[in-house]
Amino acid sequence: MLASLQQAPNGHIARFERHLKHSVENVWAYLTENDKLAEWFTELRVDDLREGGVFKFDMQDGTFEEMEIIELRTNAVLEYTWGEDRVRFELSPESGGTRLILIEKITKITDHTPKDLAGWHVCLDVISTLLDGRTLALRENEWKIWHEKYVELIASHTN
């Protein structure tokens, strides 16, 4: 399902929602344990899992961008900086599994925004697939499909 995009006082808010047939603890592990994180986001790793701690993003050129953890409540909330923006994961138990909400607080829409949104969309699909014990083939093809949809979504909010 496509993320929603809404105007906010300081930019926009993109909101993704997934219903996963797995425990909060298992979903949380995919967000915070480096071995599992590497399965769905190879450039991202946890360096210090605590409020004020950091995630590191491998820029693939020998440098890393540090993203500060703003809020951390085990098995419930993980929020960190994402460049000038913020990314927030909220987990809550529900009948038969976990509701996962991903919110990206976007300060400025750029040409890169639909790429990020398509990336998050595919990442959430990959997490779901991995939790189900499967793999998602041809992630790049999936990304291209969602990228076009997010280009359209953003155009409808900025025109």
From TrEMBL:
Domain of life, per UniProt, equals Bacteria
Record-linked InterPro entries: ASHA1/2-like_C, START-like_dom_sf
- Pfam families, alphabetically? AHSA1
Q: Where is the Activator of Hsp90 ATPase homologue 1/2-like C-terminal domain?
A: 22-131
Q: What is the similarity comment for this entry? A: Belongs to the AHA1 family.
Q: What is this protein called?
A: Activator of Hsp90 ATPase 1 family protein
Name the lineage: Bacteria, Bacillati, Bacillota, Bacilli, Bacillales
